């Protein structure tokens, strides 16, 4: 395992903090230049490009850094979000947490969930999506069996897409609590046995 030098770690943290502030404050993330990020972080532009490659990778790195606490809560936190909860309680807790995270990081999520070209990861191949889909599929398998679990996980995760969530909040006037209730109701319908 390669240990990051202390100055490199400081520079990385400075870049993530500066980029996060600039992305959060910008009307459009695409308008934030790598020059602006380098200047705000106090690093050279070359250092920024060597470390992060391009703006899309920098956006994804900021997003992933912000995911750290949520990932820890899912992996080791208390139920219902963490391990040990009944899947019927953990599934809606997971989806609600995803909605909350996306609302809290709306601009970053919007940028990353748009179709990307040139070989960049799409929403469905991004590590965070794959990780969430895998866990949701596992939990669903315990409740509805393996045959439909993966498909159902995709369908449930579609309800957390940021374009939908943003539309419901901005155009439909839903609150965070409304969205959380809708997610719980959707999961309850999906997991309830049918009438035949």
TrEMBL record:
<dbReference type="InterPro" id="IPR001647">
    <property type="entry name" value="HTH_TetR"/>
</dbReference>
<dbReference type="InterPro" id="IPR050109">
    <property type="entry name" value="HTH-type_TetR-like_transc_reg"/>
</dbReference>
<feature type="DNA-binding region" description="H-T-H motif">
    <location>
        <begin position="33"/>
        <end position="52"/>
    </location>
</feature>
<keyword id="KW-0238">DNA-binding</keyword>
<dbReference type="GO" id="GO:0000976">
    <property type="term" value="F:transcription cis-regulatory region binding"/>
</dbReference>
<dbReference type="InterPro" id="IPR009057">
    <property type="entry name" value="Homeodomain-like_sf"/>
</dbReference>
<protein>
    <submittedName>
        <fullName>TetR/AcrR family transcriptional regulator</fullName>
    </submittedName>
</protein>
<dbReference type="GO" id="GO:0003700">
    <property type="term" value="F:DNA-binding transcription factor activity"/>
</dbReference>
<feature type="domain" description="HTH tetR-type">
    <location>
        <begin position="9"/>
        <end position="70"/>
    </location>
</feature>
<dbReference type="Pfam" id="PF00440">
    <property type="entry name" value="TetR_N"/>
</dbReference>
């Amino acid at each position: 395992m390669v240990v990051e030098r202390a100055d490199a770690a400081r520079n990385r943290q400075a870049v993530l903090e500066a980029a996060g502030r600039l992305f959060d404050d910008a009307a459009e993330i695409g308008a934030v230049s790598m020059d602006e990020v380098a200047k705000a972080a106090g690093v050279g532009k070359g250092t920024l490009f060597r470390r992060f490659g391009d703006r899309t990778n920098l956006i994804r790195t900021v997003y992933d850094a912000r995911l750290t606490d949520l990932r820890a809560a899912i992996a080791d936190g208390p139920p219902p979000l963490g391990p040990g909860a009944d899947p019927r309680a953990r599934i809606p807790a997971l989806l609600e947490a995803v909605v909350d995270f996306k609302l809290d990081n709306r601009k970053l999520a919007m940028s990353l969930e748009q179709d990307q070209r040139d070989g960049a990861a799409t929403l469905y191949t991004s590590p965070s999506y794959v990780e969430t889909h895998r866990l949701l599929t596992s939990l669903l398998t315990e409740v509805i069996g393996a045959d439909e679990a993966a498909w159902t996980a995709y369908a449930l995760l579609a309800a957390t897409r940021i374009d939908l969530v943003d539309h419901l909040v901005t155009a439909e006037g839903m609150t965070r609590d409304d969205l959380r209730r809708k997610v719980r109701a959707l999961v309850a319908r999906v997991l309830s046995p049918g009438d035949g």
